[in-house]
């Protein structure tokens, strides 16, 4: 079946603008994760959604970052008033938490803040 | 806390050479351990996993054994190919519904 998809694949924005990044998880996966991959660094956890439970926002670096998940499926990560240090690849992953802890990743959105 | 320490790269090998990428972890309890691979321009793909001590994960000629006594999950391949050139990430999972903890990644380049 289809994997995790993300859009856009690339986003270039000016400092101070808001951006929205979209993630479509694998159909039927109830768990959805956002990570950030900065140049020269590993993957940094941002936020996790599981079903209708309150999301785990413990990894969000500042209050400029927020995310929502509508209808238990598609998720949008929003970054307000972007800064240059927000430049990174934003990765989304999903899993079927009922059967496995394996996470399946999308191709990522490369965000460049000028 | 939970963390993963991964061998720093970059690593450059000749085709058919033996590969080892070291990974050690810190965790309470009994985590699952993973290796993900990221080919140029692509997202992370699961390479292999192990869910309990002494388990061996294997895929595409790669192997890694979950060693609780040394808290390690080293990735090995007996004979690398040019197509194995990628970035390899070691990760720790604390059960379903929890975030992964990733190493910083090791870049591998295999030259003909």
* Computed structural class of chain A: mainly beta
Low-confidence stretches of chain A: none
Oligomer: heterodimer
Gyration radius of chain B, in Å: 13 Å
Determine the number of helices of chain B (DSSP H or I, runs of at least 4 residues): 0
Average pLDDT for all residues of chain A: 91
Task: Encode the helix/strand succession of chain A as letters.
Answer: EEEEEEEEEE
Terminal CA distance of chain A reads 37 Å
> What is the arithmetic mean of pLDDT of chain B?
93
Largest interface, counted by CB within 8 Å of the partner chain's CB? A-B, 27 and 26 residues
Number of DSSP E strands of chain B: 12
Derived structural class of chain B: mainly beta
Q: Provide the helix percentage of chain A.
A: under 10%
Please summarize what this structure is.
Chain A has 114 residues and is mainly beta. Chain A is built from no helices and ten strands. By secondary structure, chain B is mainly beta.
């Amino acid at each position: 079946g289809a994997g995790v998809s993300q859009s856009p694949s690339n986003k270039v924005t000016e400092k101070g603008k808001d951006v929205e990044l979209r993630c479509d998880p694998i159909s039927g996966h109830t768990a959805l994760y956002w990570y950030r991959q900065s140049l020269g660094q590993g993957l940094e956890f941002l936020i996790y959604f599981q079903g209708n439970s309150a999301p785990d926002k413990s990894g969000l670096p500042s209050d400029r970052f927020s995310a929502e998940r509508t209808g238990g499926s598609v998720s949008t990560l929003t970054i307000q008033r972007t800064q240059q240090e927000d430049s990174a690849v934003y990765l989304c992953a999903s899993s079927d938490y009922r059967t496995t802890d394996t996470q399946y990743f999308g191709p990522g959105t490369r965000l460049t803040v000028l | 806390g939970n963390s993963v320490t991964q061998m720093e790269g970059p690593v450059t090998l000749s085709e058919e050479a033996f590969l080892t990428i070291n990974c050690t972890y810190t965790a309470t309890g009994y985590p699952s351990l993973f290796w993900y691979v990221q080919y140029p321009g692509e997202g992370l793909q699961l390479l292999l996993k192990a869910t309990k001590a002494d388990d061996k994960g294997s895929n595409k000629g790669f192997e890694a054994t979950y060693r609780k006594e040394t808290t390690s999950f080293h990735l090995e391949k007996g004979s690398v190919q040019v197509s194995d050139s990628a970035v390899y990430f070691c990760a720790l999972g604390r059960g379903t519904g929890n975030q992964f903890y990733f190493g910083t990644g090791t870049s591998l380049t295999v030259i003909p």
